[in-house]
Fold Riboflavin biosynthesis protein RibD.
Amino acid sequence: MTERTGRVICDITISADGYAAGLHQSEERPFGDDGGDGSGDRLHAWMFDTPDENRAEVEQLNTAAAFIMGRNMFGPVRGAWDRPWNGWWGDDPPFHAPVFVLTHHAREPQQMNGGTTYHFVTEGIASALAQARAAADGDGDVTILGGATTINQYLSAGLVDELRLHIAPLTLGAGTRLFEGVPPLRLEQVTSRPASLVTHVTYRVLS
Amino acid sequence: MTERTGRVICDITISADGYAAGLHQSEERPFGDDGGDGSGDRLHAWMFDTPDENRAEVEQLNTAAAFIMGRNMFGPVRGAWDRPWNGWWGDDPPFHAPVFVLTHHAREPQQMNGGTTYHFVTEGIASALAQARAAADGDGDVTILGGATTINQYLSAGLVDELRLHIAPLTLGAGTRLFEGVPPLRLEQVTSRPASLVTHVTYRVLS
Ligand SMILES: NC(=O)c1ccc[n+]([C@@H]2O[C@H](COP(=O)([O-])OP(=O)(O)OC[C@H]3O[C@@H](n4cnc5c(N)ncnc54)[C@H](OP(=O)(O)O)[C@@H]3O)[C@@H](O)[C@H]2O)c1
Ligand SMILES: NC(=O)c1ccc[n+]([C@@H]2O[C@H](COP(=O)([O-])OP(=O)(O)OC[C@H]3O[C@@H](n4cnc5c(N)ncnc54)[C@H](OP(=O)(O)O)[C@@H]3O)[C@@H](O)[C@H]2O)c1
């Protein structure tokens, strides 16, 4: 099977009402208010409570040739980089590839184990994508991991080929919402797969 | 199989960004701006273009013992009932049961063929539900068909047992959005079924 390469993919978990994070994100609660007791991340229960059932989707999430994420997904530090922070994912992050972190606050690249290097991009979404594409050698996929603030900018700019949504059984009512402020999109449903705690839907973005 | 009866069900088609209708609803375009050329209803393409594939979901939509809908779903007449309008569904509507239409403008009941009678309720959502439950003889299901403005009120009031969503492959970007203003809900995914132009997801509302 020949896999089409060089795509720009967004991959994100959302609540049934479209939120990728609740209000009041913090180091203790990176996903903000999730209607729970604050000890867990109910959006991602499908990943952590039922990993066997969702192995394909979890693997796919981390198999791009380069990644893009927003600074709030990268961590809880806001404003100047005034304390050490190298991401939520430990010394050997699951990306094994360059990760371009959008921010307004310049910072030197941070090399981690296993092939992951965090690059901090202050020149905006087009620059981050150009750098990710170059790192992906032109023919590997680039995956934009979130948050919604970042993905919405790429969707609005018409730069996304494929959208992988994992729709979790809860609503958040407030927070950062996927598609908020994004002009109407024509989509093609490519795959849709139910699992016990989630529905996985992949759309191709037509226009 | 014993079917649990007497449930309150919402059944509605939404875009991937949660809208049940676009902006600028009119008699010519009951679903408002849908990003198309105005000739069709792209949200409901799954019903009209692929009926065989979705027979179960279409049948389920119209099998309650009583129905509730908002006045905007019922038709394009706004304000006073100053011209004849008996719904979008012709002389023999597919409901075959009483339909309670929420409105601020009183009107006499309108009997149609095949067992459908439209009752116009001006006393609010609790009254409409009590009347629908009484009509359903206490043990038949009541289905709330939309629009989002109506369903959101029932969700906010904690009056819904089950939510059947048909998620269509497009985004609208604006309009009436399901869950808008509704406090966070815990849901249980009961079923999830892909078809070629839609993903059908049924949630039980836990709280
Ligand atoms: N549900 C999921 O699958 C999922 C996935 C990812 C993240 N999340 C959650 O979502 C939340 C983070 O998402 P978010 O939407 O709040 O934020 P985000 O997209 O992760 O990050 C937004 C921040 O990135 C920087 N940024 C974004 N675009 C930029 C641009 N064009 N130029 C320069 N800097 C730019 C800005 O930071 P500065 O101006 O401060 O530098 C901005 O405040 C976290 O709670 C995270 O846990 C959830
Ligand atoms: N995607 C779908 O499956 C689906 C399903 C249904 C409808 N739709 C579309 O959605 C649109 C209509 O939805 P909508 O959200 O705009 O409106 P809606 O819920 O159908 O109707 C709202 C109207 O109903 C009356 N109403 C609602 N709650 C009331 C209350 N508590 N007390 C008294 N009156 C009340 C008010 O009318 P007055 O004050 O004017 O009397 C209100 O403006 C239409 O475009 C329709 O085609 C789509």
Remarks:
- Residues A 12-13, 20-21, 25, 30-32, 43, 69-73, 78, 102-105, 124-125, 145-150, 153, 176 surround NAP (ligand 1) (CB under 6 Å).
- Chain B is about 15% helix and 30% strand.
- Chain B has a mean pLDDT of 93.
